[in-house]
Structures are given as C-alpha cells and as structure tokens.
Amino acid sequence: MERRYQIFVSSTFADLLDERRAVSQALLNLNHFPAGMALFPASNEDQWTLIRGVIDDSDYYVLVIGGRYGSTTEEGLSYTEKEFDYAVSSGKPVLAFLHENPDKIESGKTDQSDAARRKLAEFRKKAETGRHVKYWSTADNLETRVLQAVSAETKRNPQEGWVRASLSGDPMRLNELNLQIEELKKALSAARYAPPPGTEQYAQGADEFLVSYKQREYFAADWEIDEVPLKWDQIFYEIGPMMLREAAEEDLSKRLASEICHYGDEVESTPDPEDVEIAVESFETIIIQLNALGLIRKSEIKHVPSDRKTYWQLTPFGENYLMRLRAKKKGETI
C-alpha cells in the first residue's frame, strides 16, 4: 500500500534558504509533505508548543546543518538543536545532512563568535553519534542526497504516513493532499525568482553608489583618482550578462572599469581598458551588495585545484531581474 509521509525539515533559516528549498523540492518529488516552521504562518500558540506538535504529526525528521548554530532559547540551546533533541526523544526516524567542510562556507553564512562556533561543533558531533549521516557541499548535491536517503529510509523503515484515498475510502482527503502538494510546488518555484527576505533594507535599483576608480591619461605615467555615482541597476546592467554562466571577479572588475567612463560628466572617448581600474574597496562592496540582494552567488562549477580565482554566477532571481533590465520590448530601438 503506497504511503505518503509528512517529513519535518529542521535547519537554521537565513543562511540555508536555498538548501531548505532544495530539501523541500526533493521531498515533493518523492510525493511526501515537507513540514517545518519556515512553512507555517505566525500563530498565537506558544512557539515551542507549535513546533513540538508539528514534529509529533510528522513521520520522519530531517536535519540540515550548515555554518550557523542558530537563534537560541532562553536556556541557550538553539531551536534547531532543541527540535533535534525532541525528535530523538520521541523516537522519530532521524536523517541528518551535515555540510562536509564548514571551514569553506562563506563568512556571511557562518557564526562569528567563538562560543557559537563551539556550540555548532558540539551539535555536529551529537548529530553524527549513533546514526548514519550524509554530507553535502551545495544545494544541488544536498537535494540528491535527500532523495536517495529518504527513499531508502521509507522503504527500510516505513511509518504510519498517509494512505491514498482510493485505498482508504476518503477520495476528498486525497484530493486535498494533492492540491496541497501542488500549492507547495508552486510556492517553491515562485520563491526561486523572488528576492530573499529582508533585501528591502539594502540599497538597490535606482539607489546610487559612489564608485571610486583611477584612470591614467593618455601617455601619462600618473593615475588620476576619481569617483562616479552609479545606480545599482546600472552596475548590474553592465556586469550581469557575464555571469549568465560564470565570470571571474577580476574579469567583472575589468568590464565595469571599461564601461564606467560612459557614466561620467565629460566623456570624450573610450579609454584603453588597461588605463582604468576600479578601486578594490568599491568593487568588493559591489560584489557583497549584489550577493546580499540575491542577484548573484558563488559559482558551483568545478575548476582545477590550481585555479585560485573566485567565480560568480547569476541566481535564478538574478537572471530574471537581468532579463527585465536588458531584454528589448516590442517597439524599442536596438
């Protein structure tokens, strides 16, 4: 008898948005129901009472650990670890997925304090004790590992789950569940093309950023330091197309440098690209800002170990945003 399962997904939130979506997509592809506090609206119930109730109603518990310990309770225990402890004490089958190399996670997605890092290390050790765990490095291979592990676990250790209505005598309930799955799939698909939560607080779009650069006059040895105000959309317009697949940071900087003169007050001619350089601090701010806005991410394409360059590529949201910026509408001149 075919069963569908409710599976509680537990992780820290802001740093693992892509990973949570990947896990939820994997579970939906297996025709199961992902559950977790990120999928539930605000409630008047006590927060822990609500969490505990959702875990109780779930058939399996999936834990994803990245580079952060997470927000803590009054007792100093992270909600993620408290959820894990409760699932274990309740006898729920636990599937744990840990980042294979936390030291290589970008700094914006890791704990900064020694105390939090120590707690995270202890939590990882607890999660690894007494069970088989899977290790991941990207959202894509996490999705693959979840597909494999959950498929194997549900066959090896089946739980109560949900029975198809045609077998249980309740076709209306099956229809409700199918509608729920379709709505979740639509929500996940839409989330891929939406800005990350909280980005409204950052400068973007028509907001201006003062870009510092230096330019060498023709046949001159000295560099002239200058600044030009650019809208964030103008910056993304210029360097975005290079990241449709991926682009190295130094190539992105050169591209912006070669175009920056067109935005100055007095443009006589296009200078030699070798005669213009973006200030390092300005370019670093640009990369951090575009990353924070959810427009770009570090490339997941593999390179030879000797290649030490840092590569960036567009996110699905960034690609969609770039199309809106640069695609020509009917009637527009090329």
Explain this structure.
Strand 8 (208-216) and strand 9 (223-231) form a beta hairpin. The protein has 334 residues and is of the alpha/beta class. It has two domains: 3-192, Rossmann fold (3-Layer(aba) Sandwich), CATH 3.40.50.10140; 200-326, Arc Repressor Mutant, subunit A. The protein has helices spanning 17-29, 47-57, 79-89, 114-128, 139-156, 165-168, 171-192, 232-239, 249-260, 280-292, 316-326, and strands at residues 3-4, 6-10, 33-35, 60-65, 94-99, 133-136, 162-163, 208-216, 223-231, 247-248, 276-278, 296-298, 311-314. It has a five-stranded parallel β-sheet, sandwiched between helices. The protein has a three-stranded antiparallel β-sheet with strand order 9-8-11. It contains eleven helices and 13 strands. Helices cover 41% and strands 17% of the residues.
